[in-house]
Write a structure and sequence with these properties.
The chain has 331 residues and is α/β, with parallel strands linked by helices. It has three domains: 131 residues, 3-Layer(aba) Sandwich (Rossmann fold); 63 residues, Helicase, Ruva Protein, domain 3 (Orthogonal Bundle), CATH 1.10.8; 123 residues, Zinc Finger, Delta Prime, domain 3 (Up-down Bundle). Helix content is 58%, strand content 9%. The chain has 17 helices and seven strands. Helix 5 links the parallel strand 3 and strand 4. Helix 1 packs parallel to helix 2 and helix 11 packs antiparallel against helix 12. The termini are far apart. The model has no long low-confidence stretch (mean pLDDT 89).
Length: 331
Amino acid sequence: MKEIDLRTLQLGLDKKGAKPLYLIYGEELFLVDEALKAIKARVLNENAKDFNYDSFYAPEVSPAQVRDAVEMLPVMTEQRLVIYRNVDALKEDAWQNLLPVIENPVDSCCLVLVAHKIDKRKKIFKAIFEHGVAVELKKPFENQVSTWVDYIASMNSIKLTAEAISILQQLVGTNLSEIQNEIQKIRSSSNAKKVFDVDDVLGTVSRSRIESVFNLTDAISRRDRGAALLCLANLLENGQNESGIVSLILRQMRILSQVRTGVREGLSSNRLSQKIGVPEFFMKQYVSQSRNWDDYKINNTIRALHETDKALKSSPISSHIWLENFIVKTC
């Protein structure tokens, strides 16, 4: 069975109900939570939830225990719900205990397997794809994030102006879970308001992350290794994960490259803001910093970022070491 996305999952649940076997995988936790929320809403009867719902984590809970839960009969409802998270941590031989309910899904239970990453070449995942529904939750592209910000705001019963959405994306980045956290803070800042503008965002969301990114790229342009390492530490202390830091710096480099091109073309700050898609609020800072860079430095830094991102995703070495190595290399 081919993979589907979150929206297709939601529509399928509304029209046809829950299937007996799902594999949900992806690194964006917000999307994983949304998928699980949709399945729970469709399967579980609140009055009998305590009897029909189990949530387990691998490898702490064995596949054999999960299979026992799957094969239990539901109470006062058509299906039980069993969620088994972190299944990509299971060793291949451990899967044998779950194989019977994967190859022959139990109609009286909805089994949801949750993973960050999967290897589609493995026999077990081929079996899941054949007998169940695979839901791949890809991180949104940068040009899709504003739509998600609007969606998350509506989930929280508020509205952000277009410029407020753009500023929020600038300050927080593309991680939807972090965006959700910040929107909840914005909502909590006023019980009376329903529409929030730029001032509300700037008054609620810490600017320390984006300022640290500006400071980091500025330190790199000066080849100031000590200052760059300090900025990196500030970003990590402010809760930005390693992959998120790489994404933010990469985005910064691309913007600086576009700013340099726009300045050479003689574009005004307003025109430059529209062309690049960056709020004019930040343009003065971008233009000022772009003067410290040339095309050679930018291209070298982007190349090093791609190498760092690849290492973060494939190497067992601690993530912060690769980021420190990136700074040593570029400074």
